[in-house]
Amino acid sequence: MSTQVRVKSIIEECEGVKTFVLEAPRGVDTAFAAGAHLDVALGAELSRSYSLVPVPGETGCYAFSVRLAPDSRGGSRHLHEAVRQGDTLWVSETRNNFALAEEAPYSYFFAGGIGITPFLSMLERLVVLDRPWELHYASRDRTSAPFLERLQRLAKASGNKVVLYFDDQGGRERWSVARIVADAAPQAHFYCCGPEGMLADFRERTAGCTERAHYEYFAADTEAATESGGELELARSGKVVKVAPGQTILEALQGAGLDVPFSCREGTCGTCEVGLLEGEADHRDMLLSEEEQAENQSLMVCCSGFKSPRLVLDL
Ligand code: FES
């Protein structure tokens, strides 16, 4: 992690969701591209990636919003229960795996619950660019939907559209990515961030226009590829590292003393991406497209394994 920041304020957005506003040291450029995220260190072995959210009136700050997950493995629980105003945290540089296609003639956004967070910066950016959009926003109910009023104000002021789908008002029955994609403006782009089922449906419904369909996972829907094990050659040093069955490539690299950056450990953040110079990986990440995985030019070492017995890494 590269920058130490101070928790300037903690905002209760709605039931179970807090926004952490982090004051960066003087001179640090906190501007970020729409859709970007940063990694936050939450302990020696724990870090998490969070989408950056713009906070009106704040400059020189990063901010991210977190829902307290009932099954939290430490990330959201630690932030909600242990982090206080005035505390210091270490954060990474900002990264963007969920970039906005700014030139799109029309953009459709599908958000589920806290999956709304990357869209805040994207929608505001499109307003600045005067590009039309519509947001389809699903949540359990009105009280658990973060940023609802802000988004409605933004849509109203810019002539765009927010359609709400609350479970307690028949939202699940009305939700239809298929219908919206079928009726979409030509060359429109589609974005989705939300729970696994929503993402799976989105990927299926947009299969015919994958270059215009963008999605971001919270959590992986597959296990790391650790079945076979294999051999790594590190091209820069010539060192050879064995990966035992049951071990991830990241674990083997760490065991060999390499300091490889990582965050989510499940193929969703992109922090551990490493160039692949030779060999075929068993890709299990949620970031690379099928084409990129087939090209085998890089891999996420936290979750990918071996299809060929030896991989040459750009390390
Ligand atoms: S650590 Fe997040 S993709 Fe590997």
The tally of beta strands, per DSSP, is: 18
- CATH fold type of the largest domain: Rossmann fold
| H/E topology pattern | EEEEEHEEHEHEHHEHEEEHEEHEEE
- Unreliable residue runs: none
The domain tally reads 3
* Number of helical elements: 8
User: What does the overall shape look like?
Assistant: globular
Query: Mind telling me which CATH architecture of the largest domain this is?
Result: 3-Layer(aba) Sandwich
Description of the structure:
It contains 8 helices and 18 strands. The chain is α/β, with parallel strands linked by helices and 315 residues long. Strand 7, helix 2 and strand 8 (133-139) form a beta-alpha-beta unit. It is globular. The mean pLDDT is 93. The chain binds FE2/S2 (inorganic) cluster.
Write the layout of secondary structure elements.
Layout: E1 3-14, E2 17-23, E3 37-43, E4 46-51, E5 61-67, H1 75-81, E6 88-91, E7 107-112, H2 117-129, E8 133-139, H3 148-158, E9 161-166, H4 171-174, H5 177-182, E10 189-193, H6 196-205, E11 213-216, E12 230-234, E13 240-243, H7 249-255, E14 273-278, E15 281-282, H8 290-295, E16 298-300, E17 305-306, E18 310-313
Parallel strand pairs: 7-8, 7-10, 8-9, 10-11, 12-18
Antiparallel strand pairs: 1-2, 1-6, 2-5, 3-4, 3-6, 12-13, 14-16, 14-18, 15-17
FE2/S2 (inorganic) cluster is lined by residues 262-265, 267-272, 285, 300, 302.
Could you give a short description of this structure?
By secondary structure, the protein is α/β, with parallel strands linked by helices. Helices cover 20% and strands 31% of the residues.
Keywords:
globular; 6-stranded antiparallel beta sheet; Ubiquitin-like (UB roll); Rossmann fold; Elongation Factor Tu (Ef-tu), domain 3; 3 domains; alpha/beta; binds FE2/S2 (inorganic) cluster
